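Handout, section B. The chain below has 199 residues.
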Amino acid sequence: MIEDNNTEIGNILQKYRKTKRISLKDISERTHISVETLEKLEAGDFNEIPELYLKNFIKRYATALGLNSHSTIHDYLNAETRKDQIPIISKKKRNTPVNIILKIMIPLLICIAGIQLYVLNIQSQREMLRISNKGEGEIVVNDGISDIILGSNESIDLNSNYKVHIFNEENSLIVVKYYDDTWEVFFEEFEVQLTDGTD
């Protein structure tokens, strides 16, 4: 069937060339295709022509004769074009060792960073000095600059490296907490001093 189609295309090219009274030599000069190759095209001997050039030769020959819109030639060229196209296969992402390591390491590093932030947050909270008034009256916490008044059940958090003077005229229960240490004090006046994490 393919050979019949080849012969039909060859006959069409030869018929139109002869009808227009154009020699193979004239076609050869217009298309830059050798006379020998043109004879093979007209004979339908497409197997004798390298496949790489075949479609281009037919197209140039048909254009020289004004046959590029002829249905048989047009269909043949389109069919050959589809046959020559290489199907595009989408590449799936392969799980290369690097991809696998990245898929494991990135979440792991994020978890480690989250844990470190959590531990640092807890550590910084533990390093805070908390003074709480658990009594009914008020207490005054003086940090050397200003007085901070704490009412009943009120607290204040201070950074380490801090020195405060506490006045407790109403003998309220004062709870001082630093790290895991807790002191309960009823003194009327006392001082709390933290220097480099020591009390």
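Note. The chain is about 45% helix and 20% strand. Compare this with the example in section A.
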